[in-house]
Specification:
By secondary structure, the protein is α/β, with parallel strands linked by helices. The chain is built from nine helices and six strands; from the N terminus they run βαααββααβαβαβαα. The protein has helices spanning about 20-30, 45-55, 55-60, 75-80, 85-90, 105-110, 140-150, 165-170, 175-195, and strands at about 5-10, 65-70, 70-75, 95-100, 115-120, 155-160. It has a four-stranded parallel beta sheet with strand order 1-6-4-5, sandwiched between helices. A two-stranded antiparallel ribbon has the order 2-3. The protein is globular, with a radius of gyration of 16 Å.
Length: about 200
């Protein structure tokens, strides 16, 4: 079995339509769904740490994008979760794992350096990588890195596409730009599925 886990950061449910996102809608029709569980605070880093650990912020320790350590605020990515992640659990079972993040800080937040392979290396965006509107890797760069990593060689791969969040912040979640980006990211999802072929 191979699993591909794609996070489309800040994707609003109103964009998941057959017109805008046919690939995602087809996956939804053929797949499994569950009820939503809220993670508070509703910020990127505590939520991603919860995704990879299955633990609430009160357990994994990342309760904000910055956390208090010895009376000093530090970036959550420099601390990482205090409980094991999916990368560690699968590694103990002999499953190779890969993590590719548009937001380079998520490498530390998700302890992805413990995966068999991760991008960007060390959680540092490579010099010259195309950036989205808020300074994180453009989805096109993240997709290229994921395809270059040969995700199909891994039993579990996680890819985070960040630019939807950025476009929604800059132009608004209901803007024409956000709708266009939702459609573009759906095409990228199709490319990832074709390359990875999860089973």
């Amino acid at each position: 079995m191979r699993v591909l886990w794609v996070v489309i950061d800040a994707l609003c449910v109103d964009k998941v339509t057959p017109e805008l996102m046919p690939t995602l809608c087809e996956l939804g029709a053929d797949g499994w769904s569950g009820s939503a569980l809220g993670v508070l605070p509703a910020t990127t880093y505590p939520n991603h740490a919860t995704l990879v650990t299955g633990a609430a912020p009160s357990r994994h320790g990342l309760y904000a994008n910055e956390v208090l350590v010895d009376r000093e605020w530090v970036a959550a990515g420099s601390v990482g979760p205090s409980v094991p992640t999916v990368f560690e659990h699968l590694g103990t079972k002999g499953v190779t794992t890969a993590a590719v993040f548009g937001d380079q800080n998520l490498v530390g937040v998700c302890a992805a350096q413990r995966a068999s392979g991760h991008w960007p290396s060390g959680g540092v965006a490579p010099e010259g990588v195309p950036l989205g509107p808020t300074g994180y890797a453009a989805d096109s760069a993240t997709l290229a890195a994921a395809l270059e990593m040969d995700l199909g060689d891994h039993g579990f791969a996680m890819v985070q596409l960040d630019e939807n969040d950025a476009v929604s912040h800059v132009h608004g979640p209901d803007s024409p730009e956000a709708r266009r980006h939702a459609s573009a990211v759906d095409s990228m999802l199709g490319e990832l599925l074709e390359a990875y072929q999860p089973v």
